[in-house]
Amino acid sequence: MNSGIKQANIGTAIHYAHTHVETERFLLSQLAGQNLLAYGTSLEEFRSRTGLADFYWETTFYQHPYHRRSLAEAMADAEGYVIFMHGWDGSHRIWEEMPVKLAVKNKKLICFNLDVNGFGQSPFIAEMPALEQCSPVGLMRTVDYWLTAIKLWPTPAYGQRPFFLFVGHSMSGAALFYKNVTNWQNEKYGFYALAPALFCNDTQKRAFFKAFGLMGTKLPQSINAIKNAMAPHVIELLGSGASQAVKDEHLRVYNHTSFGTISQVLYAMGAAVTKPNRSDWSRFRVALGHRDRVVNVNNMLDLLEELNFNANQIRVMLGDHYFFSYDPGSPVSHQRNQKILLGQLLEFCTQLAHEPTAKITSMISSTFLRQSA
What we know:
This protein is of the alpha/beta class and 373 residues long. Helices cover 40% and strands 14% of the residues. The chain is built from 14 helices and 9 strands. It has helices at 4-7, 28-33, 43-50, 71-76, 98-105, 136-149, 171-176, 203-218, 224-239, 244-255, 259-271, 297-306, 332-354, 366-372; strands at residues 14-15, 21-27, 56-62, 80-85, 109-114, 163-169, 189-194, 284-289, 314-317. The chain has a 9-stranded mixed β-sheet. Helix 8 (203-218) packs antiparallel against helix 11 (259-271) and helix 9 (224-239) packs antiparallel against helix 10 (244-255). It is globular and about 50 Å long.
């Protein structure tokens, strides 16, 4: 595959505590400056389609201890791509070491950890982005266009066809339900939604998010005192049970994001009332926290039942909105959840890697329940 990111020479590799993993950082504008985007695409076109000024991601892969390999070499040997997408007011950092741990456990994975929807280093151009640009549908369109721009999708009709596993939390977890799979029939792909902020049948949460967002869109942008006063309430709502590092990152992103983006994306989450329409949900898995204050677990289970999800696709874990985040201040159950989630992601990757290129008939594995037991 002639991938733009394989050819990039950005020189921003950073090394985590685990010496056998390497992470490289990218901005779409840097690839555009090196003429490495797909033929027929440009930074200007990306900006026009998405409303974003730029797009940031990190690429994590296993590094052999005795013979170092480039990202190009790692991608040539890759079985699949795991694409991590954070929630509202977050960034790639909320996943902490999850991409690293996956790369260590499966040496044939490439993990892509994105900043999305106007947050982190992927800001919107406008102070007040258009509603359709920051909606769940708009978020997934942006990710798909990014995949095309860096030549990861469509995959070639010849040779090895790597799988795609999209992992989304909260805002991005909801966005996964709206992904357009047209022209994906010959691809191997799956979705894992963690605490998806999908409020189609939750009128109370829809009203809350729309009102909270509408307040920001109607107020003058100069009233920073109001934004600052909201900060601790936002962090407490989102970050209950999360590690201190995740809470700090939410506060950092909040302080560096325009009030227009914060409000408009929040409003879009509440305004997304159209129920996802798909005949086959077998490629999906969902994990929920039993006392999540953002996503009501009972309402979400009712919605998944309406969508004809199989019970084997759903996992309810003990914990909050960040049931997979852990430090000494988090509930003990979160530590176990991390291990369970890592195991389920690895098992999902194994399934996808061994499926034929033709249409996947079922993505439900009996080991899903055994791991959860």
